[in-house]
Amino acid sequence: MNFLMTFRVAYRALARNKMRSALTMLGIIIGVAAVIAMVSVGQGAQASIQDQISSMGTNMLMVGAGSMNTGGVRSGTGTTSTNTFTVEDIEAIKRECPSVALASPSVRAGAQIVFGNQNWNTSIQGVNEDIPKIRKWNIQSGEFISDGDVRTAARVAVLGQTIVDNLFPGIDPVGQMIRVRELPFRVIGVMAKRGQDSGGRDQDDVVFAPYSTVQKKLLSITHIQFSYVSAISPNATYTAETQITELLRQRHKLGPNQENDFWVRNMTDVAETADETNRIMTILLASIASVSLLVGGIGIMNIMLVSVTERTREIGIRMAIGARSSVVRTQFLIESIVLSVTGGMLGILIGVLLSVLIPKMLGWPTLVSITSIIGSVLFSAAVGIFFGYYPARKAAALDPIDALRYE
Amino acid sequence: MAETTTVTTNVAKATQTDAVDAPVVIELDHIHKIYRMGDIEVHALRGVTLKVRQGEFVAIMGASGSGKSTTMNIIGCLDRPTRGSYFLDGQDVSQFSKDDRADVRNRKIGFVFQGFNLLSRTSAIENVELPMLYAGLPLAERQRRSMAALTAVGLAGREQNHPNQLSGGQQQRVAIARALVNQPALILADEPTGNLDSRTSVEVMEIFQRLNHEQGITLILVTHEHDIAEYAKRVIVFKDGKINQDYPIHHRRDAAEELKHWPETQDEEDDES
Predict the structure, then answer these.
(1) pTM over 0.80
(2) Are residues B134 and A326, on separate chains, in Cβ contact within 8 Å?
């Protein structure tokens, strides 16, 4: 009695009860399909966030004015409670931190911009010429702010796509004049479309201008709020962070017990946090889906137990004519494995189909991973073995004399 | 009258040959079987000693509780004796493990039961193939031998029918084919005619007599009907866990001869509906 023969016997036994076998399989089918679809949704989200973060540049750091609370949870973006952070600090960072490649000051002013009879409320971001390199953000047409524009505090502006769409429908904005707080600015370039950031904000709703212009003409301040820094490589972000922190503490003359009056955020950290959040979400989704797989497994055990009782006489006949206990056990075990693995295969098919349909119907990105497919196959086989073992052992333990007498 | 005499003479001759020359197939030596039900011990067998030679056709009789079923279970290697030894085909099988007994049942014993005990929703030929499946024979061999066995019991052409499409007599013949197919040393028939009408019973006995006579197969038949026991060559009567009587049949019934004079009944196939 080899394995193939036992397999055939088990297969025939299942084929004799098609409806029941199909219904038993349904539990596993739904379970596996749910796991695959859920994991693909989770991983799709993870991949798209990864994409956005790496497009921002994983070697980017942000330095801002203001203190962070203990634990560093509160994001200090845009905090203007201190005016100790200056352009000189940025110059010092570029000069004295060996892990820093580029740095740009940043000041923001909310303003209404007017073109012809149209207007639009947005934020004017004062930066220097290095922003396209630091933020890995290309110019679509025209050119970006130059070193000279910064030095002379020129009234020039580079527009984000949202501004172009709203104020310049069908018009080439380069060379046009816009008014910001009654001051005329010449449009010298347009940024490439960037889309939403990981927080859902529209990154294209922005106007870039030289920081010196924004400081003097729009805000009348001498400090800066914020800075974009680029490390020499993605691996250098942590050393850059340390170097910047030490330098700024020294420059701001902070004693050993004083808190920082600035904060440094590392995009690698941000990427890792987002990654971790998503991983937890994926695990959560998968474990909820696994519950249905577990329920499916219990369904198999239930049916196999009923089947053993119902087929007591058959088991008796098989034993009387020479089936060893182990052969009977293997037969029932194979029956439950065939049920669970066949269910698993069908579940994979449906799960993959769902992963293809979800982006089309709900607009969520999905990513089917080979790991989740292999995992589901192994898991459903394990379910078959685990939940089939007890009924199979029960069948094998029957005494042929009693089993033959069973009515 | 002349016919009967001839038959008797033949049978008597055969019995004589069995007794003297043929090798011993079954040898029970002081078999005891004690069941424990809680604190109560039930002494089912109290020293059964028995020899059956190859080619014998033995009918075992006795009231219920006489120990005949227990003896059948032990002879059939479904159960083990508490004490005593049992040689089957020269091998002491009395203390065999569960798996070894399964192998012995598979290779040396063919079972025919009162309730036919065929697998439902399984074709006749697949039922007959089953013992060979557990013996690990290849498919072609299994099919060839199954067809031969079904032909021997007169069921050629019915091999694809499922048990519920066959009459009781036909089902019992499938069971006989299944019992035959591994060429066992003996066939154990436990009340094989218990669920059959009298003509079908005679048909089944005809098959047994033919197998016994033509192929020399050793047969042990458990029955409580005297007229069925008369188709055998030897009768053993159990009483209170012991063999009470053991005698040869002198005026043996000949099933083939009786069937010749039996009025034709309606076709068997209608029985089941």
Answers:
(1) no
(2) no
